[in-house]
Structure formats: C-alpha cells, structure tokens
Amino acid sequence: MPVTSKIDEVRLEVSELAKAAPTAQDLMQQMVKLLHERVLKYNWVGFYMLEPGAQPPMLVLGAFEGAMTPHTRIPLNQGICGAAASSGLTVVVDDVKKDPRYLACSLETKSEIVVPVFVHGKVVGELDIDSHFPAAFTIEHQELVQYCAVLVGNKMEGSSSPKSSSSKSSRSSQ
Ligand code: SME
Questions:
Q1: Ligand 1 atom closest to 99 (CA)
Q2: pTM score over 0.90
Q3: How do beta strands 90-93 and 169-172 pair?
Q4: 145, 129 Cβ separation under 8 angstroms
Q5: CA dist 2 to 5, 8, 90, Å?
Q6: Which atom of ligand 1 is nearest to the CA of 44?
Q7: From ligand 1's centre to the CA of 35, what distance in Å?
Q8: pLDDT tens-digit profile of 16-64?
Q9: Would the CB of 28 count as within 6 Å of ligand 1?
Q10: CA–CA distance from 147 to each of 19, 37, 114, 129, 162 (Å)?
Q11: CB 106 within 8 Å of CB 128
C-alpha cells in the first residue's frame, strides 16, 4: 500500500477545494480553515491582498484563521509580509526574534512563512502562516504553501488547471 504523508493528504484536500470553490474568495476562506485545522504547526493562517489602486501600495488582511492580529494593513516596506510582496519571493523565517523585519502578531509565534500569490505574473497578495514551533517550515511545508498560493492565483485568473509552482524563496535563520 502506498504510504501517504500528512503533507500529501493536505495537498490533495486543498486541490479538491480549488476544484469545487466557486470563487477565489470562497477558496481562500476554505483554504485557511483547512490548513489551520489539519496542520498542527500552522497556528495562524491568513491572506493579505494588495488594495486595488492604493498608492503607496498596501496589503490588507483578508481571510484568516487564528487569533486577531493588530496588523490589518501593512505597507510594502514593513514586515515579513511587505518583504515577500515587494520582492515576489517566498520568505521563510526560522526564528522571528532574530529577524528585524518581523512585525509581531502573537508572542507565541516562533517561525513564519509568507508566499506571494501571482495573477498573470504580478503579485496580488500573499499567504502568511505563523507557527508556535521554531523552524516549522521545512522545504516540504514550503512546497505545500507555494502550491496553495498557486491554486489561489489560478482561481483568480479563472483557470482551473494548476500551473506548477516555480516560486523562488529566501530563508532567514540568522
Ligand atoms: N508577522 C507579519 C505580520 C502579520 S501577522 O503575523 C499575522 C510580518 O512580519 O509581516
């Protein structure tokens, strides 16, 4: 019998959600709930989306699961969130205490990943996950979160066939 990992199971579940969700907004709401419930180490899961037409550009909190955050609007020059959106790179922080860019959401957060969401090659938002565990986002988790971000980008583009994720990343464990 083939052995499936938890990550493979969750990957399948999010791809099923993407097939069934009528809109990208529905998909984002269902996805944050599923990721938060199914992966023990994902203690806060949420989307930040770029406010259409805002100058200077602004990330606005969208669908999320976990404790309320004081950071409902984040400019691109602030936070791990701003770094990911402005660079178009996945940012993985193994120890948030050691990263001067980090904007605290919860005192319990130890590590964080932020993956940009692209629509027609442009960043439109991002998927942000915080963990109470240090260095929670191994390469397998990074690939899962990037896959989720691609599903949302595809849904926003109105396409149903998942493109493969080719996101670049930067890891900070200073
Ligand atoms: N930690 C993020 C802010 C968002 S909260 O974690 C939900 C950052 O440094 O940008």
A1: 9
A2: yes
A3: parallel
A4: yes
A5: 10, 12, 31
A6: 7
A7: 17
A8: 999 999 999 999 999 999 999 999 999 999 999 999 999 999 999 999 9
A9: no
A10: 14, 18, 12, 14, 9
A11: no
